## 1
Amino acid sequence: EAQVTQNPRYLITVTGKKLTVTCSQNMNHEYMSWYRQDPGLGLRQIYYSMNVEVTDKGDVPEGYKVSRKEKRNFPLILESPSPNQTSLYFCASSFRDSADTQYFGPGTRLTVL
Amino acid sequence: RKEVEQDPGPFNVPEGATVAFNCTYSNSASQSFFWYRQDCRKEPKLLMSVYSSGNEDGRFTAQLNRASQYISLLIRDSKLSDSATYLCVVNIGSNYQLIWGAGTKLIIKP
């Protein structure tokens, strides 16, 4: 089944404790991105990647890191999480670029205490 | 002014009715337009792309008005299963980011 998977789905952590949210797609998509969704603000892009080893900042990259060592994986790293990073996070992928249909993972609900 | 604006709703509509909502965008260079559907904090899914000539998919019709910089979504004969949040998405080029509206919540009542 073609899909985007994210893990974990739910995470409660404390300020400053490094964490990684994994994202993997099995559709051989070139474009991958991370979003956060907060009430009333819509989806805001954190980082995106046009292909392996190519990443770029989105609208809200502060406090986040990403890497794209393999085509299928695009992990999101929070080196020192803070409460303002409490949010719903979505990973997405598309065939080639942002103009193509975006396929989303199920989301990761992160709470930073 | 937000780059993509939507009425947050909720729109409470009886089953079987027709409902329409708009989305305005500020960048006149915008090239691609989409409607995504999101159920109760689940992942968004593409509902339909919006073409310059307008397009229809069953009970759903999307239109683009470049002069006034808005896109619209019309749902005819609404079903209970249409209850969701509808996200408007605008793209100014394939090498650029997608700009997402905050969504319009639709509730279909029996």
## 2
Amino acid sequence: AQSVTQLGSHVSVSEGALVLLRCNYSSSVPPYLFWYVQYPNQGLQLLLKYTTGATLVKGINGFEAEFKKSETSFHLTKPSAHMSDAAEYFCAVSFTGGGNKLTFGTGTQLKVEL
Amino acid sequence: DTEVTQTPKHLVMGMTNKKSLKCEQHMGHRAMYWYKQKAKKPPELMFVYSYEKLSINESVPSRFSPECPNSSLLNLHLHALQPEDSALYLCASSQGDNYQETQYFGPGTRLLVL
């Protein structure tokens, strides 16, 4: 069965530091991978999406993620954290045979400190 | 424009009330979704409409009744809810109904059942 694991339910970084949010997936078929961000009391906003082709995906707000098939990972990074990045981040996967259903990870709460 | 709108933003209802949540998109998307999200948890899929037909019902209790009057509108009718149904209800839409599509989320309706 396909699944998504986000390591670390809470991550805390200093402003200006590197942000690294981890996502590993399990899929017997090539997946499509997504990162969404959710600010307090808001809906989910798409940060970036991996389909096929280039393994380094650039998204909005300076975020990027690298698809590593050998490690079944799709970690999200940002070189320099900003206070406005504090939010909940969800990794999600869809796959052929799964229809249009998204399987979400449990989420990572990012805290940015001065 | 990737906007999905939802009304109302907040809703308080008693267990005997009947209310409806509304979702609208004007992106020409042909798949629309209802999710339920509890605090600190990922969204849980409830229903999917593809080309105005109900394609997925994730064993949701009958006190939740979805309706898709046309390709731009999605309603969720609520009746005799329980306090445990209090949650953020998110609507999403995608261009088509296959696994390659990106789902775009609305801001949600925060529901409190007393």
